[in-house]
Amino acid sequence: MGVIVIDEKCKTAKVERSFDCGYLSVSDKHEIYYEQWGNPDGIPILFIHGGPGAGFLKDDHRFFDSTKHRIIFFDQRGAGKSTPFASLKNNTTAHLIADTNALLDHINVKNCHLFGGSWGATLALAFAIQCPDRVLGILLRGLFLGSKESIKHYVGGGVRHHFPDAWQRFIKIVPYEKQDDIVGYYLKQMQSSDEAIREKYTYEWAYYEFSIYKLKIEGASVEELLNDFSYKSLSPLEAHYMQNNCFMPDNHILKNTRKLEHIPISIIHGRYDFICPPKYAFQLHERLPNSTLHIVCAGHAGSEPEIEKKIEIEIAKISQQPSLSFC
């Protein structure tokens, strides 16, 4: 497998159970943080976090078997421990795909399985379309296609019929005359020179998302979640990507499924996912004969019990696959 080098800045990160962590310079401005966890000789699984801007979390380790898997976590540009924090400059889907390639090269992984939820599912598919030979299989959760339609559903009013209270809170701080471009208005305020304005709009964007992402969640729970979550990178990066149609041609994923036909793909989706309706998962599944779709009683969050159960089953299937040469 190549020599593992621990970055000096990583020694104070207090990473538990990782055998390698560090920073990889991917441009003259950006460094991405990564960790490798589990068995250095195990089946490589690249975990692709959501958002954009969410970063990976300690709890994301829970799905994997440390004796069988070599799990690669990384914070995308501007997210988590990557620097500069929350930066929008030179931050596009193409950059993230290039960074993913660079990271796999850096740690000497020739090909691997991909596991991504929400935006992580989008990026996993976009990466596989561009670099299919590096992908052994894909596990998707809460699929977001990154299309104009899917963006409009989320931030253009599609949610209001099921969550009128959450929608009203989200748009009430947008002047009526600006409500034809809600994302653009939020993004502008999140870049204000006034810290109080930046904080208000950054918080409210994330509050909206967390208000609707699970089957059962109350206002107090949302506030508790946000106290422990890096919403100050999530909100501006999500708005940045959505304002630019995720930096992809419209319906890029559905129009390029022929490039994915040879890849085993498992899709797990909540029946009551109001952020990313299950119809998008079904549309992808219909175009991919080598895919399996599991619709479960859940919302959008990866922490929903039925989603967690299904993820564990699908990860176990990866563990049962015959040995291959990964490095």
Key attributes of the depicted protein:
single chain; 2 domains; Rossmann fold; alpha/beta; 327 residues; 16% strand
Q: Could you walk me through the main structural features you see in this protein, from its secondary elements to its overall organization?
A:
This protein has 327 residues and is α/β, with parallel strands linked by helices. It folds into two domains: 8-148 and 248-319, Rossmann fold, CATH 3.40.50.1820; 156-246, no CATH class. Helix content is 37%, strand content 16%. It contains eleven helices and eight strands. An eight-stranded mixed sheet has the order 1-2-4-3-5-6-7-8, sandwiched between helices. Helix 5 packs across helix 6, helix 6 packs across helix 7 and helix 6 (195-212) crosses helix 8 (231-243). It is globular and about 55 Å long. Mean pLDDT is 92; it is low at 1-15.
Summarize the structure.
The protein is an alpha/beta fold.
Provide the residue-averaged pLDDT.
92
Widest sheet, order of strands: 1-2-4-3-5-6-7-8
Order of helices and strands: EEEEHEHEHHHHHHHEHEH
Largest sheet: 8 strands, mixed
- CATH architecture tag of the largest domain: 3-Layer(aba) Sandwich
End-to-end Cα distance: 6 Å
- Spans of at least 5 consecutive residues with low confidence: 1-15
CATH class placement of the largest domain: Alpha Beta
Helical segment count: 11
> What portion of residues is helical?
25-40%
The CATH superfamily label of the largest domain reads: Alpha/Beta hydrolase fold, catalytic domain
According to CATH, the fold-level topology of the largest domain is Rossmann fold
Strand elements, count: 8
